[in-house]
């Protein structure tokens, strides 16, 4: 609806109507509605007196009907929001539903659908459209952006980006996901940044902040979602769904007492909800999980103190500064709670002024892991060298050194014939009687001491000690408990001269060694039987 008026300025009488037409569609003349005074205050400029030679100057005025302008604006906005780059009113043709989650057919990206409660046929109203435009325009690293509204009569949904890690609640309940304090602090810092930005926007309040409304993308960045719902519900005349007692565990005491206030939400209520989320992250459990109370009992006690009921968090669960921030956020009096600007500053102090995010945390963990890995490799290498030396010593005791070296190098060992050697055999006289009057550990101790003495003695001779492992009655073991190797658990002792090193005086070497061992055994004392003498039975064979 437009109103056109053509006026003429005359120096003697002022403004005079020449033509007036209302409603351009029907061209109805309504000259009687226009008077000179109607436009006198609209346009009056001294320089118009000299518009032409005779001082006359016509002027065309166009006025608009306000109702028609509003209707025209609504049609234009709805048309604009339903197509083109600013499209936020979506239809089912914009999605591919066989996959879960759905895929945006325009971009090919996965999306998340949040169904809206409604009665009857759903259609986005103009006020709700303005709210959607405002929400759609919010952009921050820690806000999950709104893509649009699925304007489907039977399935209306709000469409947002899909975050593959799920909600914060989902991550916390998965024990296989290891979250050290640096990871948890990174997630909480993301939440503080997102809420700080949201409170500075025209939306101003979240109203439904829980760990379920904090989603985590593939890069482990936490993003706040479902913001602006109170304003959208109010503009669309949607009755919010009824919450269960468990859903209300994140709600501040004043919001529990006044349901009408809870529908709109408050900034201080969001801070309280953040405090409860901090408790979830710190202890990796549900809200108030440490209390043996049902959600209904918890809500009743939170609404009606005293006593004041809050989650109980041990001092060792997080740094003291973090626990102090958490307790400030769930203060009973709303005015005593810090706003998110204050919480952001407190987290900066907690982070020692560093900008904490997942990437920084990951680099720090990789650096720490690299340093630990280098230390671990060094320790394992030292242990490997020690075990290698023990293995070589054991191999050299079991086999001649020339044979052992070939085996270590993977070379074949060919049989070799020795035509002249001398072999020494000995055993302990009455060993069965001594063993019967001794405990097993005393027998092991006896043999360990005796053969250690014998080994030290034969080192002075060019002979090779053969273990009783080759005998049918011999047993080989390694007793680490005594910090020494006992190669033969049995009283037999065997030494070879002239093999594997050929020497001409092998008989003299072995005979002299036998006399030396006989002398050593005469001086040997049994620890547990000091009065019992130790006697050797020795035999030699040469040829």
Describe this structure in words.
The protein has 543 residues and is of the alpha+beta class. The protein has three domains: 111-354, Transferase(Phosphotransferase) domain 1 (Transferase(Phosphotransferase), domain 1); 356-414; 422-542, Nucleotide cyclase, GGDEF domain (Alpha-Beta Plaits), CATH 3.30.70. It has helices at residues 66-81, 126-136, 168-173, 181-199, 229-236, 253-257, 259-264, 267-283, 295-303, 320-329, 340-350, 358-398, 401-408, 431-436, 440-458, 506-523, and strands at residues 2-10, 14-22, 28-29, 57-64, 89-90, 95-96, 103-104, 111-115, 146-150, 157-161, 214-216, 222-224, 422-428, 463-466, 493-497, 536-542. The strands form five sheets. A four-stranded antiparallel sheet has the order 3-2-1-4. Strands 5-9-10-8 form a four-stranded mixed sheet. Strand 2 (14-22) and strand 3 (28-29) form a beta hairpin. The longest helix has 41 residues, at 358-398. The protein is elongated, with a radius of gyration of 47 Å. It starts with a strand and ends with a strand. 25% of the residues are buried. Residues 359-390 form a coiled coil. Residues 75-347 form the Protein kinase domain.
């Amino acid at each position: 609806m437009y109103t056109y008026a053509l006026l003429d300025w005359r120096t003697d009488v002022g403004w005079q109507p020449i033509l007036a037409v209302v409603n351009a569609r029907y061209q109805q003349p309504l000259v009687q509605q226009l008077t000179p005074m109607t436009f006198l205050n609209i346009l009056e400029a001294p320089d118009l007196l000299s518009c032409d030679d005779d001082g006359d100057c016509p002027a065309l005025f166009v006025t608009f009907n306000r109702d028609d302008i509003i209707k025209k604006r609504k049609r234009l906005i709805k048309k604009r929001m339903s197509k083109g780059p600013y499209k936020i009113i979506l239809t089912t043709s914009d999605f591919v539903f066989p996959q879960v989650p759905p895929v945006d057919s325009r971009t090919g990206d996965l999306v998340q659908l949040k169904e809206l409660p409604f009665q009857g046929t759903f259609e986005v109203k103009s006020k709700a459209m303005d709210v959607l435009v405002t929400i759609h325009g919010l952009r921050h690293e820690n806000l999950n952006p709104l893509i649009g509204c699925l304007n489907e009569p039977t399935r209306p949904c709000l469409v947002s980006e899909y975050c593959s890690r799920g909600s914060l609640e989902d991550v916390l309940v998965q024990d296989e996901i290891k979250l050290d304090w640096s990871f948890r602090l990174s997630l909480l810092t993301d939440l503080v940044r997102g809420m700080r930005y949201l409170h500075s926007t025209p939306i101003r309040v979240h109203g439904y902040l829980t760990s379920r409304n904090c989603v985590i993308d593939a890069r482990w960045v936490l993003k706040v979602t479902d913001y602006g719902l109170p304003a959208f519900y109010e503009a669309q005349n949607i009755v919010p769904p009824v919450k269960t007692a468990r859903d209300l565990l994140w709600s501040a005491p004043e919001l529990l007492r006044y349901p009408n206030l809870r529908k709109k939400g408050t900034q201080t209520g969001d801070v309280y909800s953040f405090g409860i989320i901090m408790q979830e992250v710190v202890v990796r459990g549900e809200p108030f999980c440490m209390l043996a109370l049902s959600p209904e009992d918890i809500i009743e006690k939170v609404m009606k103190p005293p006593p004041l009921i809050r989650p109980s968090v041990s001092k060792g669960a997080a740094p003291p500064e973090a626990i102090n921030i958490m307790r400030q956020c769930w203060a009973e009096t709303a005015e005593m709670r810090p706003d998110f600007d204050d919480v952001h500053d407190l987290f900066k102090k907690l982070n020692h002024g560093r900008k904490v995010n997942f990437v920084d945390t990951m680099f720090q963990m990789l650096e720490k892991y690299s340093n630990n890995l280098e230390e671990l490799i060094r320790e394992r290498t030292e242990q490997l060298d020690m075990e290698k030396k023990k293995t070589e010593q054991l191999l050299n005791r079991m086999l001649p050194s020339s044979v052992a070296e070939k085996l270590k190098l993977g070379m074949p060992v060919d049989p070799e014939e020795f035509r002249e050697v001398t072999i020494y055999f000995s055993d302990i006289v009455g060993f069965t009687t001594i063993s019967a009057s001794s405990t097993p550990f005393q027998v092991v101790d006896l043999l360990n001491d005796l053969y250690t003495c014998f080994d030290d003695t034969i080192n002075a001779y060019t002979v090779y000690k053969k273990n009783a492992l080759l005998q049918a009655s011999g047993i080989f073991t390694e007793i680490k408990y005594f910090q020494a190797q006992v190669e033969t658990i049995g009283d037999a002792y065997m030494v070879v001269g002239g093999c594997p090193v050929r020497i001409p005086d092998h008989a003299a070497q072995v005979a002299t060694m036998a006399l030396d061992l006989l002398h050593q055994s005469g001086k040997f004392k049994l620890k547990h039987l000091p009065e019992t003498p130790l006697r050797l039975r020795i035999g030699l064979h040469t040829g």
